[in-house]
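Fold these two proteins, one after the other.
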Amino acid sequence: MSPAGSSAADASADITGRDDAAVAAAPRVQSIYVYEAPVRLWHWINALAITVLAVTGYFIGQPLPSMPGEASDYYVMGYIRFVHFAAGYALAVGLLGRAYWALVGNHHARELFTLPVTRAAYWREVRSMLAWYAFLRDRPNQYVGHNPMARLAMVLGYLVLTIFMILTGFALYSEGTGVGSWQDKVFGWVIPLIGSSQQVHSLHRLGMWLMIVFVILHVYAAIREDIMSRQSMVSTMISGYRTFKD
């Protein structure tokens, strides 16, 4: 294009607000629908349940100082235990609902419950993502759903740990509901298997701290990916769409 033509185009852009050259050179933004509404709803309810369980669970293990006066006038620990049990039910029922949706939802809904551990290509991708998280690569590979490293972390760091917390939590709860209750019939075998109620309590509390560590790493990784990998993470679990900004 001649300089005169270029000047005319620049003048037109100033008047109309159009700049075709800049638009053509701009990075592509592509959005793909990944997470269905039930998955997103479960994610945020689950996050709230885990937060409530961690806070109330801490105070159950480290009770508040005794308050003066009649015990009947102060039911603080009773309320804390009630909220803890209610959140525990929400966590357990939510996981059952999430398992159901893995069967009827899209293939991304099944990533939480499956790992292609027999495929060598999967482990190569895990190593590649480990290098990315360790700042040894400039750019990560792009994935529509969970990346292979995140998928491994979700199965081992969340799913297995959550199942353990549900088993041990309801086993401890069954001591209060008594012999013959459905909690005792379903979960009563856990305490004899591990050894004693105190051992189950200690392991349950250890699981709480492991879950807190997992949540911290999960949030860090999601925000880091949102900023550095040029693909949406946090907003994807709100809208359902993964946006690639290249």
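Now the second one:
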Amino acid sequence: MAKKTLNESDYQYWTKFKTNTTNRINNAELKRISKMHSFYFDHKYNEPCTCNPKAIQAYINDLNKLYL
């Protein structure tokens, strides 16, 4: 079960992340997204393979729901 809202630091990071106009993420962003997802969705840290953009997008979509 997901925690309800992003903490202040993650909220600020996600605000900046959402302003990115490219459709690519770098390795540092992938690590941060994975870390945030494991924390907010209470699971072991798992970094999706860059060969699987659907899994990465699913993490992003989940975090977007908490961003409200």
